[in-house]
Design a protein that fits this description.
Elements lengths: L10 E6 L1 E2 L11 E2 L5 H13 L7 E8 L7 H14 L2 E11 L6 H10 L3 E7 L3 H6 L6 H13 L3 E8 L6 H13 L4 E6 L7 H8 L7 H17 L3 E4 L2 E3 L6 H7 L5 E3 L4 E4 L2 E5 L3 H9 L5 E6 L2 H14 L4 E2 H8 L3 H14 L3 E3 L3 E4 L1 H5 L1 H8 L1
Parallel strand pairs: 1-4, 1-11, 2-3, 4-5, 5-6, 6-7, 7-8
Antiparallel strand pairs: 8-10, 9-10, 12-13, 13-14, 15-17, 16-17
Helix pairs in contact: 1-2, 1-10, 2-3, 6-8
Length: 379
């Protein structure tokens, strides 16, 4: 058994918990319509980042949420300058900012471009206004095209998020969403089946019978349609939910899937440094209170041992369509793949959910359809 190398993180995530309103399906650490807490959050982030001690250069930087573009141009500039002081960007960096189509006026786009943001992750979700209304989004379909064109004109690459299997949605409507997304020529697309998370408004409505989940077979057909249509359009299907033009994968998210380390700051933000996984408190007000009192905002902390790191590396790695190469796995994890999960892999191969040629283990097309059910078997 070799000793695995714990690399110095080269990625950083900053969580901005604000949205104009909370969508019914959302289970993220989010506060709706709290402009009064933006400046206190920026003050707290400045303190938390200072605890890094020295600046940590990164190759990928990601502002997520919530909705970072809930901040106005001056606040975005303050946030960016503060973060860059502690996470300077290396040459050839990728800097992603999540955005809501309704927020992206020319002022915000110009601010982001001037600061050096080169990738915009846009929560479009659908090009049908009725579906957007059902999802409780606060934008209309027309806003998506406007936002994409503004970002592209400013020189940014665009990633579009789409949601399928919304109650009442048909396969044809989903196909129309895919076609309209392709018409905008984004560099990257992410497609997600709607989930009903406990604690959300959608979960409560599901229990009351106000909402009915899409039939399982229809959801599968929608996912397969996305795979086939996007591949035909020249996109590489490189992760369970993600598709990219050549050279435009999300490098930041690939750091997660490769089980690399990453820094993070903000309410609910999770970091992974030197084998230690920490997650900040999800409550923004609790986060602010702890920072003001000079206390750690960390709510959960876990030091992963060699076997735990290996299992995580396997599960994250299998999310990538390239799968897990045995030799690379043992070099990075310090354990042989078959020692970690040999019998489970063999069973999943027999079920047709994984393919194993002795060199590489990867999801099959059938495995892609039930991937969430596979991960517990490998952990």
């Amino acid at each position: 058994m070799s000793i695995p190398h714990l690399s110095i993180p080269r990625s950083a995530y900053i969580h901005i918990p604000f949205c104009a309103h909370r969508c019914g399906y959302c289970n993220f650490s989010v506060l709706a319509d709290r402009h009064d807490l933006v400046e206190p959050l920026l003050d707290a982030l400045a303190v938390e980042l200072s605890w890094l001690g020295v600046p940590r250069e990164v190759d990928t930087l990601y502002f997520g949420g919530g909705t970072p573009t809930f901040l106005d141009s001056e606040q975005l500039q303050r946030l960016a300058e503060m973060v860059l002081a502690w996470h300077p960007l290396a040459p050839g960096y990728e800097w992603t900012v999540e955005a809501n189509p309704a927020d992206l006026d020319s002022w915000r786009i110009d601010t982001l471009a001037r600061l050096g943001v080169n990738r915009l992750s846009l929560g479009g979700q659908s090009f049908h206004d009725q579906k957007l209304k059902r999802l409780e989004r606060d934008h209309q379909a027309a806003h998506i095209g406007q936002a994409v064109r503004r970002a592209q004109q400013a020189g940014m690459h665009v990633s579009l998020d789409l949601i399928f299997a919304v109650p009442g949605e048909t396969l044809d409507q989903w196909g129309s969403d895919l076609n309209q997304a392709l018409d905008l020529q984004p560099q990257h697309l992410s497609t997600y089946g709607l989930t009903f998370e406990r604690g959300t408004a959608y979960w409560s409505r599901l229990q009351r019978g106000d909402l009915v989940q899409a039939p399982e077979q229809l959801e599968r057909d929608m996912y397969l349609l996305a795979i086939d249509r996007l591949k035909t359009a020249g996109f590489e299907h490189y992760e369970v939910s993600n598709f990219a033009r050549a050279g435009f994968r999300s490098r930041h998210n690939e750091a997660y899937w490769l089980a690399d380390g990453y820094y993070a700051a903000g309410p609910g933000a999770a970091r992974y440094v030197n084998g230690l996984r920490e997650t900040n408190h999800r409550s923004t007000t609790t986060y602010l209170k702890r920072i003001r009192q000079g206390e750690s905002p960390v709510a959960q902390r876990e030091k992963l041992d060699l076997r735990q790191r290996a299992h995580e590396q396997l599960v994250f790695g299998l999310r990538r369509l390239e799968g897990v190469v045995r030799q690379e796995f043992s070099a990075r994890s310090g354990m042989e793949l078959d020692v970690v999960a040999g019998s489970a892999i063999a069973q999943l191969v027999e079920l047709g959910l994984l393919a194993d040629d002795g060199h590489r283990v990867r999801l099959t097309r059938a495995g892609l359809l039930v991937s969430d059910a596979i991960w517990p078997e490998l952990l």
